[in-house]
Structure formats: structure tokens, C-alpha cells
Amino acid sequence: MTQLTVTASPHLRAPGSVRLIMWLVVASLVPAFAGSVWFFGWRALMLTGLGVVSAVGFDALAQKLFGRKVTVDDGSAVITGLLLALNLPPAVPWWIPVVGSAFAVVIVKQFFGGLGHNFVNPALAARAFLVVSWPGLMTAGWLAPRGGNLSGIDGITGATPLAVLKNASEIAGPGGDPAGLLAQAQSWPVVGRLFFGSVGGCLGETSALLLLAGGVFLLVTRLIDWRIPAGYIGTVLVLALVLPGPKHDLLPYLGHHVFGGGLMLGAFFMATDYVTSPITSRGRWVFAVGCGILTVLIRLWGGYPEGVSYSILLMNVATPLIDRFTRPRLFGRVKKATG
User: Fold this and answer.
1) Which residues carry the post-translational modification FMN phosphoryl threonine, per the record (predicted)?
2) Can you spell out the DSSP letters for 222-283?
3) Is residue 169 located within the same domain as residue 55?
4) Dihedral of alpha carbons 19, 25, 28, 30, sign
5) How many CB atoms lie within 10 A of CB 220?
6) Which of 312, 314, 243 is CA-nearest to residue 273?
7) Percent of the chain surpassing pLDDT 70
8) How far apart are CA 252 and CA 187, in angstroms?
9) What is the pLDDT of residues 82-102, one digit of tens each?
């Protein structure tokens, strides 16, 4: 006699699994990783390898210590280590990705119950921890990529493109020409370098084109909801357009905000994290718009030229509240009598 499992409706089945989803996300990051190795050479390979191996090792060790089943083959630790490495400047010491991976998988992930229980993105939390702990290393470890230079502007060293927009007067120096520097920064050749990757930055954020390739893969395979990257990037565009800023040439200026910094990496690969983003469609719009607002505010008036990491982390914390106020209305439920 065949036994049947009887459960309440609705009955939903999906062909995917956590392991398959995680490894597909890893595959989507391959173009950005390959680009980092091309642009920065062996250092990118070393830092990424250390980040991934450390994340997997610390994840397995923490699961053993907490008495949990070791599930490092599901790919989640690989994603954490890979994303953390792609968020690092290329000249940081070798131990930075090791310490960051330990913080990400042990403190942020396993201390809160493991995969699915962390309330913020582990890789971004680790990056924020590293920036606070070693700001000199995390904000000055820049290298010029192969075939380009750090700022995208000939003769300007030591400043990333967004830093040039934010601190043109300081970078130009006494007797310099800040207006001329902004004019050079906001030119189509510089925006083109931002798009293709021949400017400095973190390992994985250099080429917007390679990040878009991975993002399109995630969208086509429906691994992520289009609302979050569309809402995030769209909000940054609108606010950069309407808020006051160092606008010398409008379209290249908007190109800096979209292609420069970590916006593409954050919008497609970190803001869309299943665990730390809202579950409702309306909630995802709210989440994406909030990320965009915070990013632009930090870029224009904050202490750092980049604001993607902290924006997503702050909205991660707000996710439970967003879900609470955007959950759909339940029909057919009998309300309790009052009085």
C-alpha cells in the first residue's frame, strides 16, 4: 500500500535548491572575478582565494563548534568570501580577507543561527568592520588597473573617480584648477573607462560591464527580483539629477554615479540577498528606494565618497519593519470582536 503525505494547501514546488541557487550566483560573479584578475593580476587572485578559502574554513569550523551539520558544500560561504574579496581595495595586506571572512561567517552568520538567520549581509558587514578597524588600509589601498590609471584622468593619482567629484578642490591643491579637474572627470572618455574597467577601485567594482553581464544572468534565470536593482539604480539616477552636486556636464556626471563605485555590485549582488531583503514586492521597492536615497546622501554630504555598503546594511536592519508594513492584506479572516 502506498502511503500519501497529506498537508494543507497551498502546495508549491520549485525545481531549484539552496545549493543550486548559491552556485549559480557564484557563476554570475565569474565575469567580475575574471576581470579583477585581468586588471590587477596575481594580487586579485591571491586576495580572492584567501577570502573564499577562509570563509569556507571558518564556516565549517563554526558549524562544528556549534554542533550543526557542516554544509559548506552549499556554496553560501563561497559567495561570502568572493563578495568580500570583490569589495576590497587591491593593495590591502593578505590578512585582511582572512579576518574579514572570519567576521562574516562566524560573527554575522553562525552566531545568529547560520544560513538564513543573519539579519545583515555578511560580506558587507565584514567590509564595514574592516573599514572601521583599519580605515587607512581600506580607503587608501588603491592600484591603477592594467591599461588605465586610478582616477581615469591623466596626471591625477591617489584618487578614485567618485573621490574626484567629491573633493575636487582638495585634490587640485593650492593654486590648482578644481573646475578644470571636474570638467576632465565629467567627460565621455572617463565615463567609458568607468564602464569598461580601466579605472581604479575595489577588485570587483572596476568594470560595470562585467557586473552587468552577471546581473543580467541573475535576472534572466530569475534568481533575483528585478525590482531591487531597478529601484536602486533608478533612485540614484533621479536623485543625482535633482539634488545639487558638482555638475559640469550632466550626462557624464550621472554616468559617474551609476558606473562608478560599488553601485552595480551592490544593486545586483548584495541588495538582492534573499535573507536580508524584503519578501514582498512593495517591500522590495521601498527597500531599493531607501538604498538609493542613502547612497546619494552619503556620496554628496557624507564623510566617504562611496555609500553603497552602509546604505544596504542600514536597509537590511529595516527589512523586518518593511515586511511588516507591506505584507498583503488577508481576506477571509474573521476579526476578533472588541468591546
Assistant:
1) 160
2) TSS-THHHHHHHHHHHHHHHHS----SSHHHHHHHHHHSTTHHHIIIIITT-TTTS-SSHHH
3) no
4) negative
5) 8
6) 312
7) 89
8) 6
9) 999 999 999 999 999 999 999
CB neighbourhood size of 270 (10 A): 27
Q: How far apart are CA 221 and CA 219, in angstroms?
A: 5
Residue 254 cell numbers, joined: 550621472
Cβ density class 128-161: b for 16+ within 10 Å, e for less: bbbbeebeebbeebbbbbeebbbbbbeebeebbb
- Residue from 241, 262, 271, 276 nearest 305 by CA: 262
Number of domains in the chain: 2
Measure the CA angle with vertex 239, ends 160 and 230; round to 5°.
90
Going by C-alpha positions, the residue among 140, 146, 137 that lies closest to residue 41 is 146
Range of the domain at 113: 18-140
Query: Residue 199 phi/psi, 5° resolution?
Result: -135, 165
Can you tell me which residue has the cell 556620496?
Answer: 299
Rounded to whole angstroms, how far apart are CA atoms 243 and 28? 34
Q: Which residue has the cell 568592520?
A: 129
Reported as half-sphere exposure (CB side, CA atoms, 13 A), residue 302 has a value of 17
Which tens digits make up the pLDDT trace of 168-213? 777 766 766 778 788 888 888 888 988 998 888 899 988 999 999 9
Q: Is 91 in contact with 142 (CB distance < 8 Å)?
A: yes
Query: Dihedrals φ, ψ of 321, to 5°?
Result: -70, -40
29 and 64 in a single domain? The answer is: yes
Helix ranges (DSSP H) in 134-177: 135-140, 161-166, 168-172
Which grid cell sits at 318?
529595516
Q: Is residue 148 part of a domain?
A: no
Cα–Cα distance, 145 to 161 (Å, whole number): 13
Of all residues in the chain, what percent are helix, strand and coil, respectively (each to 5)?
60, 0, 35
Domain finish residue from 85, 105, 140: 140
Question: Of 106, 140, 174, at which residue does a domain stop?
Answer: 140
